[in-house]
Structure formats: C-alpha cells, structure tokens
Amino acid sequence: MRRIHLTRLPTQPDRHWWRQTLLINAGIVLIVAAAIQLIPVRQDNPPVVREPVWDSPETRALTVLACYDCHSNETNWPWYARIAPISWVLAYDVSEGREALNFSEWDRHAVAIDPDEPFAPKPLAERIADEIRSGAMPPGTYRLGNPAARLSDAEKEALILGLQRTVENNQSPP
Description:
Largest sheet: none
Order of helices and strands: HHHHHHH
Helix content: 40-55%
Shape: elongated
C-alpha cells in the first residue's frame, strides 16, 4: 500500500505570505497616515468681541473650565489637535460650538426671544440649563481629555444658575 504524504496544501498561505501581506498593509496605513497630515485644518482664535457681564467671578471661572474651549474665541488647542484626523474632529466641534453659543461674541445672543412669536425656540437660559442637566454639555469626549471639566452635580447646578442669571442680565427685550 502506498502512503500519501500530505504536506501543505497549495491553497493555504504560508507564514511568509502572511508576514509579507501584513508588512504591505502596514506600509499602506503609514503612508496614508502621513499623507493626511498634509491636509490643513483651521485652528484659530478670532479676537474677543464682547463677553457677557458675568453675574459673579465664580460663574465665569466654571464657564471657562467647562465651556470655553468650544464656546469662545479663546480655545486652548491641545497638542493632539495638530494630528489628523483628530484635528478635523476638534476643529469641527469647536466651529459648531461657537456657532451655537459664543461667549466671546455675546452681541449675537444679546436679544431675547419674542415670547409672542408662535414658533419661538426655547430661551437661551433654558437651552443652556437643559444641555448641562442632560449631560450633553460638556460632551463626554471633551470630559475624557479634560478631567477638570468633569463637574460635580453641585458645580453643574452652580454653573446653570450663574449662566441663567448672566443671560438674563445681558439680554435686551426683543
């Protein structure tokens, strides 16, 4: 009886093939990662136009701690904000944050909402309180990289109360 010696099947890749494929893929990833660093992202801090008149220094300090990096023109860009694609996400988040509420351009928020308007949005003070109480602000990704922005419940309530007073004191009637 004849013995059949089964060796590696030709359809099965060997260790050399796997190593070569892994090295090629790693090289492609490195080239793409290096290439995306060349795509510029705008990370600027325009001049401060006007801040609100704060109800207290404590309110301003809490706001600077938890909100200013996205909601002002005084963003402290961390070192990793220069590395794509993280830089793209951070620049987008800051742009969206400044568009929604910018403490450095307070004149945009200085006019109160007309309560007689049939489809008026919530007043600014109420929207701020809702965002902080729900945990949407500051966002979890921001709190992850900025431990100082992890406010206690007491700090959140102090921030809400202080911002509500600040907003009310700085808004003129419609």
